[in-house]
Amino acid sequence: MTDNITTVLGIDPGLDRTGWAILTRNARSVLSLRACGLIHTDADQELPERLEYIYGELQKILSEYAPDQVAMEQNFFLKRAITMANTVQTRGVIILACQQAKKPITFYPPKRVKLMICGTGTADKKQVQRMVQLTLNLNKAPSPDDTADAVAIGICHLKTAPLNSKINVKAAFFAKLKAAQEAQLKKRVKK
Hints:
five-stranded mixed β-sheet; 5 helices; 55% helix
């Protein structure tokens, strides 16, 4: 975090198309889109080559934009087993690149992202794109869908992370308080 600006990398993982977006939130909680794009792999390439390409491109993005945090879609699969396996492997490569760059990752289910962006967990792609456009005051909605989803994931994170951080601090405080109380009770019992 520099000068009260938080930068997040939003990621919508996929073997064929991985959407990514770099967003910032300033001290006044104003959100901005710095950059976004698509990591596209060729279906004619072998799986290891495709994963290596995604890994390399993600390393470039992490190095160039130096985000403070990463937010990634947590996938739920109702599709074919091959699609699921490929996406899981892609997520592994992305997680590895982020871990090596020492960037904390938060995962968001699609319904939570849609709820945060559109007010309903059942919003369609067009609704998400339009609300992303309005939220960031963009001239046009980001596209394709994978890129728009990455932007939405980043927005969701930037809007929820400050509250989640406060909740985690409060929970840690209460856990320490409870441990201290239990320690005092044990001392009293021993006397």
